[in-house]
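Researcher: Let's do a round of design. I'm pasting the structure tokens now; please hold your answer until I've finished.
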């Protein structure tokens, strides 16, 4: 696992599949997502490498139920006084009370369908307690007030976490980073049209920094980059 410091309080934790984020404050740590199964030890090592203790983690916010985001959540929940937070629509899946819906690939571009067909399945995430079922507009006590933004489409209960005081937005898999420092829609969505609409809403928040579940974060003008990505997707194709 690779640890990259984006801001003095913000650290990217990059796994072989996907990534999570650590927000560090003097009295507590917050994790955004947990990586796939088997990631907990690496996350604990990254926390110690920053001069902190895994027991300092107070919140684990899960952007959605997919295994590359929730795989280590059950183990991290056992580190101490950790409050696991997720949207109320995702919580039953994360607790393994119901199965999560698969993506609808019918409207995905051909390259995305090919990618979906070629990927091996991830190890299922163990059942994880969700202590705080959040909804749109709720505020979590970190980052000067972390606002939950419901962004359905990738999954029904996908969320973004917006830190207005710092100009930072965590998008989960609603948005992904591109190799050239831009943004694009996340892949493997349950509802592609709703994903694009959720991206529009994220863009209107005008974050300076956007942290994605996959791909490089955008560290300047992220709101504009997200809005531009939507416009590219919905621009009419010129007729011959």
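Researcher: That's everything. Go ahead.
Model: Designed sequence:
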């Amino acid at each position: 696992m690779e640890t990259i410091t984006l801001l003095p309080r913000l650290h990217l934790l990059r796994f072989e599949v996907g990534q999570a984020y650590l927000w560090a404050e003097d009295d507590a740590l917050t994790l955004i997502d947990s990586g796939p199964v088997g990631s907990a030890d690496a996350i604990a090592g990254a926390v110690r490498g920053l001069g902190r203790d895994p027991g300092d983690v107070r919140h684990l916010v899960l952007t959605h139920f997919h295994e590359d985001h929730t795989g280590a959540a059950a183990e991290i929940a056992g580190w101490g006084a950790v409050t696991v937070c997720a949207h109320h629509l995702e919580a039953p899946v994360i607790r393994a009370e119901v199965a999560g819906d698969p993506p609808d690939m019918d409207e995905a571009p051909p390259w995305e369908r090919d990618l979906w067909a070629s990927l091996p399945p991830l190890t299922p995430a163990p059942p994880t307690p969700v202590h705080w079922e959040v909804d749109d507009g709720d505020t979590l006590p970190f980052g000067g007030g972390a606002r939950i933004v419901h962004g359905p489409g990738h999954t029904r209960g996908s969320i973004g976490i917006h830190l207005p005081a710092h100009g930072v937005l965590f998008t989960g898999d609603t948005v992904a980073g591109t190799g050239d420092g831009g943004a694009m829609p996340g892949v493997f969505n349950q509802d592609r049209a709703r994903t694009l609409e959720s991206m529009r809403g994220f863009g209107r928040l005008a974050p300076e920094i956007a942290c994605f579940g996959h791909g490089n974060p955008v560290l300047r003008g992220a709101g504009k980059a997200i809005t531009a990505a939507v416009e590219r997707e919905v621009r009419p194709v010129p007729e011959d």
